[in-house]
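in:
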């Protein structure tokens, strides 16, 4: 439930739980394993986090973003704050836009790849939830957007118009995942298609054989 601590008392932290501090969080399905382990013998649904599928092994969860800490948003908070479940995503995205109003797009050295970032902490991966941003970029890229999000603060992408860019994207994702094992999300490449993220796979027609790496996060943590 607690992702970052700054030494303040729990009582003061919970005083700051309000609707304006809810933000989305991108996680991998490994998070589900942790939740299941933590709730062995506890079937109280109210204490469980709200989880929504995104693409592949990526999921969307929610948290209260208060200075120095993320506190997981649970089922019980819907009732406490009188929020309809179907409104939660839009509320969280509105808050995220207010906290991080600008998505910055930068080139990665002289490579045919780019990265995106926000001014929020650990929230770069949440740019995947900004369809307007990716729709506008798609018109500039000359091909479909292919993206890697190996960890929560790394979002890099290229275009299907450049095979070299896709190769570099795959390599950068692999290297970054090992550099930041605690923040690991996925080594799947994603493609922005039909205004949503899909798993990316190139066949021989693309003159590039996509190599999919299977990494055990626990093994990565011990590396």
């Amino acid at each position: 439930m607690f992702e970052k601590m700054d030494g303040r008392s729990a009582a003061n932290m919970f005083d700051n739980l309000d609707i304006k501090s809810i933000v989305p969080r991108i996680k991998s399905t490994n998070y589900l394993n942790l939740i299941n382990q933590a709730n062995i013998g506890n079937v109280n649904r109210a204490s469980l986090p709200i989880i929504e599928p995104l693409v592949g092994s990526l999921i969307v969860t929610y948290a209260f973003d208060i200075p120095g800490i993320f506190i997981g948003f649970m089922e019980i908070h819907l009732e406490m704050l009188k929020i309809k479940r179907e409104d939660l995503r839009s509320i969280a995205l509105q808050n995220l836009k207010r906290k991080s109003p600008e998505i910055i797009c930068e080139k990665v050295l002289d490579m045919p790849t780019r990265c995106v970032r926000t001014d929020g902490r650990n929230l770069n991966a949440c740019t995947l939830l900004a369809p307007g941003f990716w729709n506008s970029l798609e018109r500039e890229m000359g091909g479909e957007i292919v993206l890697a999000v190996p960890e929560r603060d790394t979002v890099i992408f290229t275009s299907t118009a450049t095979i070299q860019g896709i190769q570099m994207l795959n390599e950068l994702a692999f290297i970054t995942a090992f550099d930041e094992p605690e923040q690991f999300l996925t080594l799947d490449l994603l493609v922005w298609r039909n205004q949503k993220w899909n798993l990316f796979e190139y066949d021989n027609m693309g003159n590039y054989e996509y190599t999919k790496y299977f990494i055990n996060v626990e093994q990565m943590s011990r590396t």
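note: The helical segments are 10-15, 30-38, 75-80, 88-99, 131-141, 163-179, 217-222.
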